[in-house]
Amino acid sequence: MARFNMQVIKRLPTQLANQIAAGEVVQRPSSVVKELMENAIDAGATEISLNIKDGGRTLISIQDNGSGMNPEDALLCFERHATSKIDAIDDLFKLTTMGFRGEALASIGAVAHISLKTKRDEALTGVHIKMEGGNIAMNEEVVCSKGTLIEVKNLFYNVPARRNFLKSDAIEFNHVEDAFLYIAIAHPEVSFILHHNNQAIYNLSAANLKRRVTDVLGKNAGDRVFPIESETDIVKLTGFIGKPETAKKTRGSQFFFVNKRFFKSSYFNHAVLKAFEGLILEKTHPTYFIFLEVDPAKIDVNIHPTKTEIKFEEERFIYSILLSTIRQSLGMFNLMPSLDFELETAFDLPAGFNKQPIVEPTIQVDPNFNPFKPQAHSGKSNGFSKGIKEQGFGSTSPKEADWQLFYSINETPLPEQQELPGIADVQSVADLLLVGRYIFTPVKTGVMMIDSKRAMERILYDECIESFVKHPLNQQMLLFPIDKPLEKQEVRIVSNHLKTFEQLGFNISLQEEVLHIFGAPEILHENGVVQCIEELIDRVEYSEQHQEDVAHSLVLQMVKHAARYHRISNKSEAEMQIQRLFSCPDHTLSPSNEPIIQILAFEQLNQLIK
Questions:
Q1: What is 433-597's CATH number?
Q2: Could you tell me if 60 and 32 are in contact, meaning their C-beta atoms sit under 8 angstroms apart?
């Protein structure tokens, strides 16, 4: 009985409680960047400088010129639930600040080494505090400039399991860059600087929203976007949308903000896609920077630990307003097809039909058709199930046995899997038939159908991969070099993988935000070089996010693009492709695991003509 008198529930030590809280607040380096930048904005900073090393795992340094703190507040800010932004519970329902939970510095200090230097404008000196694992290691007076400098070093040094879960420096910096942009775009009146490993990434001067969007996207971005604006009692909408021709296959530059706070919403994203319906290709995504101003009492920003998901009280109405606003702007800037009311109302008939007589259409009806007459059944016997005939229509109720035919499963055995033929099974070249992208040739068991596009993908992939690992792919110089402007994020991607692009066979140079293309892989059609570059850049971003091997992913993307321009015009070319295909170790599947060959057995062909 003694064991029931033991105390079971205990109060957690402060350090352990902070580490548990850090699991929610500090998930990766970008979480630290988000929390500290939000604090700098709330402190009234007009200049914020962010310095990152090794994706944030080694150093995260944020300097701002905000209001700073006095020595007492500097100590208190490391306590849990200590905040200057809410006083009563009602404040939670009318939030106008960014960080408000008072857990950021306490949580960060529990899993990293923190150095804080801060000074108020009216003070002669500031304070320097160092925290290590949640404990104060230094607290002294210091001479420093107005504002706050926070350095976070060795993130998760005392939580090895969490540190091991961090991705590569490149992936972690991608998340840091996203967090930086979420704040920078929402506050164009503030200047921002971002360095990674002592390399300048962004230097954004204070400006209006359009200039900030242009600085983020890169040169000539102003010509690729158009404004949206509307105001109702429910929401005020402003921002910029990318023109339809700038839509990408990846969700690159897509930003929603409410009251200057970034959030994610698949529901509102659907409204944007619906507005672009018919204007962009399937599986492509438009660029947008959309700002909503809503009564703070009608949103809940604290339903998710990262505060990127927000609950809207009137989201259905906002959806409709967003949809109509974008469509209106598309029409105003002549980006949406319009009706020409000056045209004659007569139908535009093809030229071949103009001289044909007009014939009244007729409908063929079988007067002998009886819908209640039993039809042939594909089951084990002809006619309807007796259960159906009796249920509701017959004079007696059906028995359990009467339903057996209705529930029976067609047990016709499936044909055995046929072994795909080799090159020796292909008959004479004279018997080849070309229909679009397909090659038909007789084999011993029937007719073999080959998808020439997928076949070319397999051929080119095997050839390129074998060559790629040894030396750059064969290259052809362009008759006229091509200059392609890049967005800021695209510049970083190309500069980080410049050697890989050269290994693929591209002769390129990057100057500021313009990519100069002098040569391309010989497997590419000259008209598709720019589009291929765009697809490769998108593929790099996708591969990094999903931890794919970038090099092999790029080879696959490039050969898929090259295969689109491939055409077989005669039987001799078809024979050559068949020989190249069957020389590949795996000639049955494309590099994307799509079937290349299909056998139409004689039995199947006989069934088709019965």
A1: 3.30.1370.100
A2: yes
